[in-house]
Amino acid sequence: MISGYSSAATLQQLQRKLETLSNNIANSNTVGFKSRSVSFSDVLSSEYTNQPNENRLTPHGLRVGTGARASLTSLSAAQGDVKETDRALDFALTEPSLFFTIATNDGQRLTRDGTFYFSETAGGELSLVTNSGETLLNENGAPIRLPASTISLRLEQAGLIAELADGQEQVIPTFGLTQIGRPQALEAVGENQYVYLQEDAIFGQAQANQVKQRALEQSNVDLSQEMTELISTQRQIQLQARAFSFSDDMAGLVNNIRR
């Protein structure tokens, strides 16, 4: 019966790895997406010490495992490839520990997706927003605000330059970037966004060499590696399912013998 419990426990945890791999593969073309990996550890082992010790060539005691568990799901902070887009409102971060800071209904969140759009505010100004409408914050932690006549943006060392319809230019505060000391501690909350612990974050001003305009960071998913892991995990699931079936058959035989 131990083997049956072990197989059932491991099957459940392998399903978690399968879901993680499937999510990575599904987001292989998502801008700024960071892949995750699952690590396993033994649940617990029992040791039988009542075996004969005379003339043994192996260590005394027989250790029997009771399955594996997914002990850690870690985020890969590796930099994705940067692809030029020739779109003025596309921005790629060039350092893996940095994130754009956005304001949502649930508080501040982080993202590596630098695809932004103009959105008119209630006051008649323009703001920069994400695909899902969250507002991008500037270096002061306030929403980025642009004159209503802004037709394009330019990133320079001095900050963001708003190009106006009348040919004039206006300097506005640049992006507010958050540096994360432990990217593995970030929690994904959907929409390619993350929540973070305040003690892990350093908020500051974006430098010109940290952001590339007219470009986007691609997903850091290694598709060939993920597919290989997916096939391997599916085979492990098949093996554990077969072991569980054998254990069930053996238990049935034992019950029949007792009758």
From TrEMBL:
PROSITE patterns: FLAGELLA_BB_ROD (PS00588)
Subcellular locations according to the entry: Bacterial flagellum basal body
Ranges of residues in domain Flagellar basal-body/hook protein C-terminal: 213-256
GO cellular component, one term: bacterial-type flagellum basal body
Superkingdom to which the source organism belongs: Bacteria
Principal place of residence: other
Domain Flagellar basal body rod protein N-terminal: 7-34
Gene Ontology annotations of biological process type: bacterial-type flagellum-dependent swarming motility
Official protein name in the record: Flagellar hook-basal body complex protein flhP
Organism: Shouchella lehensis G1
